[in-house]
Amino acid sequence: MPQDWQIWLEQNLQRGCSEEQLMAVLKQHGLAPSQVFEPGDIDIDQSLREFVLERSLAGDGGAEIIADGMAKGWPAAQIEETYLDLTVDPVFRKLLQTQQKLNKCSWMMRTQDRLRQLQPNYAAQIERKSVPGFSEFVQQHYSLQVPVILLHGIEHWPARHQWSPEYFAAHFPEQMIEVQMHRQSDPNFERNSPQLKRLTLMRDFISKLMAVQYSNDMYLTANNAAQNKLLMQALQKDIADFGTGYCDLTQSERQFLWMGPAGTFTPLHYDLTNNMLVQLYGRKKVTLIPALQMPDMYNHCWVFSELNCLDNADLKQYPQLQHVTPLECVLEPGEALFIPIGWWHSVESLDVSISLSFTNFNQMNQFYNEYPSDLIK
Ligand SMILES: O=C(O)CCC(=O)C(=O)O
């Protein structure tokens, strides 16, 4: 605290003025309690500070914060003191500026989303149609970022007519593959996928997945792609261009295999590329949420939401979800779902399932490098 204020404070304390009165005057002049007292002099309850901080950042005013804080059991004077202390804190003012920018981005996204909902194929239903030429697809879907289910894109792939668990067991029995195992033992199985990687023989994996009725415990996923390069190379003979002119076939490392029993579940997330999910065997249920609904999706870390799925979500705990408009579809064998970049999705296998996703479109699809890294882990 500046020295002249220090002298003023000491003189008035000696004159017998109350500490509350003096604090009020100091605060009017922009001096916070933390500047008035040495650290440790005042016991400002940390959880109260967090409460006041969160509410202030949410845009609530002092009176509202005090009333709600009192309902939570804190004394009014302490809440007021914490609030006033915070409002003159330069770090807090920086935070407010950042929040303000964020609020404007969120407003813009919500507004764009509401206007796009005037298009029936945007978020009311997913269009199903025969695969168009690539330039038409780019005009109607890739550039506008509208999902679509495309039919007849893979009729010329041997994989479409041959792939099944039995095919993999018969053609690659001794192939060592990497898969995700023991997923059910970890509620954060997707985020912890590196720890759940296991090597196994193809024939053992296939017999395990055929032996269960419904299970999320084992799954060969895109997270295993690096280790399963050899398998993917061997599978190239069964895969070709999607439709005509969709894929850059020199980029075959941007194709990903998914194989598991009924019951595998990929939790809510978004991809950092545009993605085609091609269903080869069995069915999958996909829930999609527009990318522009990001402000309401509780994206707390990386590409994940605090929620694994939207079913039975607690609207009291996650009130923003009331603005979210999920779309569901069931993907049949031979169908392919275009998932635009940033669109949230969760995926459940309804049967034993084999899929292949690809990102090697003949169009720009490299946005990953500019994705902001998490500042808090
Ligand atoms: O098929 C799945 O289980 C998940 C697919 C997916 O999320 C993706 O390709 O991004």
Automatic annotation (TrEMBL):
Signal sequence region: none
Gene3D superfamilies: Cupin
InterPro entries: Cupin_8, JmjC_dom
Source organism superkingdom: Bacteria
Any Pfam family the entry gives: Cupin_8
Domain JmjC: 213-375
The protein's name in its UniProt record: Cupin-like domain-containing protein
Origin species: Acinetobacter tianfuensis
